[in-house]
Structure formats: C-alpha cells, structure tokens
Amino acid sequence: MFWEGIYNGLLGVWTIARIVVPLMIVIEIAKANQWLDRVNRWLHPPFRVIGLSEHAAFPVLVAVIFGLTFGSGVILSNVREGKLSSKELRIIGTFIAICHAMIEDTLLFFVLGVPLWILIFPRLSVAIIASMIVHRFYLWRQEKATMIAN
Questions:
Q1: Which residues contact 40 (CB under 8 A, 6 or more apart)?
Q2: Taken in order 48, 150, 145, 126, is the CA torsion positive or negative?
Q3: How far apart are CA 87 and CA 52, in angstroms?
C-alpha cells in the first residue's frame, strides 16, 4: 500500500509536469520575443477596473482558463520576478478563487445541459465584484494611512 501511494503520487506529479513544463517553456519564449508584453497590454483594460497592472493580466487569464495549478505556476514566476505587488496578489487570489478553470468547468456542466450564460455570467460577475471590493478596501486603507500621516 505504501509503494502504491508513492507510485500514484509520482504519477500525479508527472501528469502535472507534462503540462506545466511545456507551458512555462512557451511563456519563456513569449517573454523573450515580447509577445507576452503585447498580450498583457491587450488584456489589461478590463483588469484595470479591479486594480491589476499589465503584469497581472496574463497570470489571471492562465488561471481562469487552465485552473489553479497552472495559474499558480505563472503567478509564482511573476512574483519571483517582482512584477506583482501584495495588493495585486490578494486581488488575483480573490478573482481566481471564484473564477478559476472556467473552460473546464463550463464544458463539464454544459455537457450535462446547463446553459452557458448560467455557467459563465454569475461566476465572472461575482469574481469581478469581489475583486473590486478588495481593490476598494486597499484604496480606502491607503487613504486612511495618508490621512493619519498628515
């Protein structure tokens, strides 16, 4: 039973690595050719409303499309490079906690006959509203600190 657990654990790691490693290679190639910068500029306007910078748009998109496991790899990479602030990490965490794996989940329930708008609109709306609340909280806290300092 012990060896079966180790085998299944290694098999799970191998399954994730088969997807994460090529994804990270593609991301590095995209960074080297400035493709990622173009994608971030294109994706940034809708995410500006919830307080995210250009560098935060792509990790959120990866998490929304591929899920938490793959999105967290991209997020960690951006954190190591110093591209994301702690405020952005909280907003990203809020957004993707509600709205992760949209493609996968939507397809699973769509096959069962649930209408697309019921699958996408509520999750996306709640994720945006919750992220805006977190963003507004940070703005309020910053204003309060400024008033105290003055």
A1: 54, 55, 57, 58
A2: negative
A3: 9
| Cα separation, 75 vs 84, whole angstroms | 8
Closest CA relative to residue 125, chosen from 93, 98, 92? 98
Find the helix or strand (DSSP H, E) in which 34 lies. Answer: none
**pTM, rounded to two decimals:** 0.74
Positive/negative CA dihedral, 30, 32, 37, 38: negative
Cα–Cα dist 90/102, whole Å: 20
Structural contact between residues 47 and 57, judged by C-beta atoms closer than 8 angstroms: yes
pLDDT tens readout for residues 15-66 = 878 877 887 788 788 778 888 778 888 888 888 889 998 888 888 888 888 7
- Least Cα distance to 51 among 123, 142, 132 occurs for 132
Distance CA 41, CA 37 (A): 6
Domain parsing of the chain, residue ranges: 2-149
